């Protein structure tokens, strides 16, 4: 996630990012996704959550379109 765009008076920790991503993954089919997110992040506003979601979607789009190269991790040996 691009930290330059995590503004709007809202800072997201790595732990919050992980909770955000897990909630999104497990509740993505929920019609009330924003409400589910709000339950997890009592100190975040609805706009903070929406902005964070939109940034994630932009990042995924950039990766899929090839604008952001994937990290080439070395292969692990057994």
TrEMBL record:
Keyword vocabulary terms for this entry: Nucleus, Transcription, Transcription regulation
MF-aspect GO terms: DNA-binding transcription factor activity; transcription cis-regulatory region binding
Coiled coil residues, start to end: none
GO biological process: green leaf volatile biosynthetic process
Domain of life assignment: Eukaryota
Stored PANTHER family: MYB FAMILY TRANSCRIPTION FACTOR-RELATED, MYB-LIKE DOMAIN-CONTAINING PROTEIN
Name this polypeptide is given: Myb-like domain-containing protein
Organism listed in the record: Solanum commersonii (Commerson's wild potato)
């Amino acid at each position: 996630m691009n930290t330059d765009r995590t503004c709007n008076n809202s800072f997201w920790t790595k732990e919050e990012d992980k909770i955000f991503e897990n909630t999104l993954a497990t509740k993505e089919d929920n019609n009330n996704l924003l409400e589910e997110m709000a339950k997890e992040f009592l100190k975040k506003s609805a706009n903070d959550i929406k902005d964070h979601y939109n940034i994630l979607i932009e990042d995924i789009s950039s990766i899929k379109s090839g604008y952001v190269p994937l990290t080439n991790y070395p292969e692990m040996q057994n």
